[in-house]
Specification:
alpha/beta; Rossmann fold; 8-stranded mixed β-sheet; 3-stranded antiparallel β-sheet; 29% helix; 18% strand
């Protein structure tokens, strides 16, 4: 089989695969209601730090284990040492083979230049993978991350999935009790169920291409280009975000900020019965219009 007929899935770690809770904040977890804690799968490392696993991670990684055509990598904003540490924990808990992870990268692997490779300066630039592993390219690779800034640049935009953060103790570095209602919702998270379906369709699409198609598309056709997303029946995951309009594959409700707004949520058609003006904070101030972003806002009737 042509070695390009493989799928490479790259994972961010924190708030994507797991939530890491250091000893400093572990008492917050310990003080939660036992019923809430029982809804999550957890483990601890050798130093007693808590790792909360995202729901359905075992089923997803069992699927990966059953498909030799799928390769998995880790890439975190933390150090390589942390990436390696988490890979060992996951391998132990999920019973993964020793060589399961194709690489375990960290922040050092964003700026460090390689022979024949010059860093673009973009976070988690997938072209680094293409340089080091020639069987993978835009045709058959994607990254899953909870932070859009890691994947919004041109080299990654059509090879990325932004996922809703998994944070039972909040998304800030200072862990907090976010409340039983939100924690229960997170315990029922189905993101990895949906991701498994996306992987199945992506792999089937790759395997279904003949060699002539691959020769033509390997370095030019992105896995999540509009054409391929439609062909795979994944249109419902491809959404549009502003301020600079970009199309991204998403699962769940990714965290939104002033420069990353779901268009059909904030700029969509008027909703019958609505009474408020549709306007974005920081883009429209009474008496002042940003020339770049100015637009007319009509009261919804």
């Amino acid at each position: 089989m042509d070695q390009r007929k493989q799928l490479c899935v790259v994972f961010d770690i924190d708030e994507t695969l797991i939530q890491f809770v250091s000893n400093t904040y572990k008492p917050i977890w310990d003080n939660l209601n036992d019923e809430i804690k029982s809804k999550f799968s957890t483990t601890t490392d050798s130093k007693g730090h808590l790792i909360i696993l995202r729901p359905h991670i075992r089923d997803l990684f069992n699927y990966f284990k059953s498909k030799p055509e799928i390769k998995v990598g880790l890439w975190t904003y933390s150090e390589r040492e942390y990436s390696k540490h988490i890979s060992e924990i996951l391998s132990n808990v999920l019973e993964l083979p020793p060589d399961f992870f194709m690489f375990t990268w960290g922040a050092e692997d964003m700026d460090e230049e390689l022979d024949g490779y010059e860093s673009t300066g973009n976070a988690k630039d997938l072209t680094r993978i293409y340089h080091m592993f020639p069987n993978f390219n835009t045709f058959n690779t994607f990254i899953v991350d909870d932070l859009y800034k890691n994947i919004k640049h041109d080299t990654n935009i059509n090879n990325s999935i932004i996922i809703e953060p998994f944070a039972p103790l909040g998304t800030s570095k200072v862990r907090v009790d976010i409340g039983a209602e939100k924690q229960t919702k997170l315990s029922q998270d189905l993101a990895f169920v949906e991701l498994k379906q996306i992987c199945e369709k992506s792999l089937a699409d790759i395997l279904g291409c003949d060699l002539d198609d691959i020769d033509e598309a390997f370095k030019t056709e992105s896995l999540f280009s509009a054409k391929r997303v439609k062909r795979m029946g994944l249109d419902n995951y491809r959404k549009t975000y502003a301020i600079q309009f970009i199309h991204m594959m998403t699962i769940g409700a990714p965290m939104q900020k002033n420069d990353f707004i779901l268009v059909n949520q904030n700029y969509g058609h008027h909703v019958k019965g609505g009474t408020k003006r549709r306007r974005r904070k920081n883009l429209y101030v009474k008496g002042k219009h940003s020339r770049k972003h100015s637009r007319k806002y009509k009261k919804i009737k």
